[in-house]
Design brief:
Layout (H helix, E strand, L loop, with lengths): L9 H28 L7 H16 L1 H4 L2 H23 L6 H17 L3 H16 L1 H10 L2 H17 L16 H25 L3 E2 H11 L1 H14 L4 H26 L4 H26 L3 E2 L11 H25 L1 H11 L4 H13 L4 H27 L1 H33 L7
Length: 436
């Protein structure tokens, strides 16, 4: 029985080829820029586009001829790239980035041809980003210490080997401790914080203080507060810029919490947005206003943050979360709603992550949503108070006057707005059918 030369519908095939063209052009543009500076590169935007199209075309033939066209096209592309690499090697130019990128582009073209356009486009964006960040990635590798590398390796062992071995069952009083859940939260918090840590290193040591505060807030806004307060004490002339960066770090901590809740307790994201967005908007406006008046100063080593993947930090968060989730449950059982609010006030003084995730877990276990939202507002306010006291005590009264008033205002307005808005907003959310 004869099969049609092309079993894929024409409109689908044309769409796949267009996506492959976009993928090849996207990756090829970066290589074209590179070739302008180094004429020995064997492939530019046209070659990469053709490679992606070859991958997509070979994939479109799979329904009629099986995997053979893909294999033949792959080895043909690999042979062409190998010839180019040998030509470079003869000129003592060793480096296979372009060749490897070409093979990845071919595979992405195959994905597009097989109908996986979204993963193919996502892969193209990641490849282009990796290629375009060459200098930043080299700089980041150069700034990593042996201690950083050891922390990454140890944390990988904990995440990939030990975490799956933890029991997945409720334990302890009221069954509030699930070792697997706590371990997963540690991995999540440390991973998100590490992304901020990497971003700080990719930006480099010469960066604006405001940008340092924003990136540092992705790792730990409390660490930024302490570091900038110390800097302000030693360099009074930088106080306006450091105050702006400090407030920026506290502002970006809010969206970071929503991302974490989106993974751990997605049903709590919309309710939690009420206090978090109020606090974020107020602190962002204050930071922006200060930055406009002070100008964003650029200074080396404006902020140094420890690697968040160190096991000591991970275990400390695990213990803090376990203690807070038990305290909140005990307070609710013994003292009722007032106990939950008191526990949130105390827990928020030092760590907003643990109490936020704890409230998300408790809300999923039956805590009233309104109570959880109000408790989160109180925790956010107490955290603002703690940072204000920290900035005043470490950075001095001059820095304290600049930031403490704004932090206290943000905390008070967050609590008042939440008490007033939360019942109205939650009633509106209750009518949304897709709400978890």
């Amino acid at each position: 029985m004869t099969t049609a030369p092309l079993a894929t519908p024409p409109d689908v095939a044309i769409g796949s080829l267009l996506i492959a063209t976009l993928i090849g052009a996207l990756v090829g543009l970066d290589r074209e820029r590179k070739r302008e500076r180094a004429s020995h590169l064997v492939a530019g935007v046209r070659t990469f586009t053709l490679i992606a199209l070859l991958g997509a075309a070979s994939a479109l033939l799979v329904p009629s001829f099986g995997i053979v066209p893909v294999i033949v096209a792959f080895f043909a592309t690999a042979g062409f790239m190998a010839i180019g690499y040998q030509a470079q090697a003869r000129e003592a130019r060793v480096g296979a980035t372009t060749e490897v990128a070409a093979m990845v582009t071919f595979v992405l073209g195959v994905l597009a041809g097989l109908g996986a356009q979204v993963p193919a486009l996502a892969g193209a964006v990641l490849v282009t980003g990796t290629l375009s960040l060459r200098e930043e990635l080299h700089h980041f590798a150069g700034t990593l210490t042996q201690r950083d590398l050891q922390a990454v390796v140890r944390f990988a062992v904990v995440s990939l080997v030990l975490l799956p071995l933890l029991p997945d069952a409720p334990m302890g009083p009221w069954g509030v401790w699930n070792p697997r859940t706590i371990g997963w939260l540690v991995v999540l918090i440390s991973g998100v914080s590490f992304l901020g840590y990497v971003a700080m290193h990719l930006v480099g040591v010469r960066r604006g203080i405001g940008l340092s505060g924003i990136l540092g807030g992705l790792t730990s806004s409390t660490a930024v507060t302490l570091a900038f307060a110390r800097r302000a004490r030693d360099h009074p002339a930088l106080q306006p810029s450091l105050a702006s960066g400090l407030l920026a770090a506290s502002a970006v901590a809010g969206p970071r919490l929503l991302v974490l809740l989106g993974v751990v307790a997605p049903g709590f994201v919309l309710p939690a947005s009420i206090p978090i967005l109020v606090m974020t908007v107020l602190l962002a406006m204050a930071s922006w206003g200060m930055a406009r008046r002070a100008g964003d100063r650029v200074e080396a080593n404006a902020l140094e943050v420890r690697n968040p993947l160190e096991l000591r930090s991970a275990f400390a968060f695990a213990l803090a979360f376990a203690a807070i989730v038990w305290i909140v449950r005990a307070a609710e059982t013994v003292l009722g709603e007032g106990g939950v609010l008191l526990a949130s006030l105390l827990a928020g003084l030092t760590d907003l992550d643990a109490i936020t995730l704890s409230l998300g877990e408790q809300r999923a276990s039956g805590m009233a949503t309104l109570l959880a939202v109000r408790a989160l507002a109180i925790a956010a306010a107490s955290n603002c108070l703690f940072k204000g006291v920290l900035a005043w005590s470490v950075g001095g009264s001059a820095l304290g006057r600049r930031v403490t008033l704004w932090l206290l205002t943000a905390g008070v307005v967050t609590v008042v707005a939440t008490w007033w808005l939360a019942p109205i907003a939650l009633d509106a959310l209750a009518g949304i059918s897709w709400r978890p």
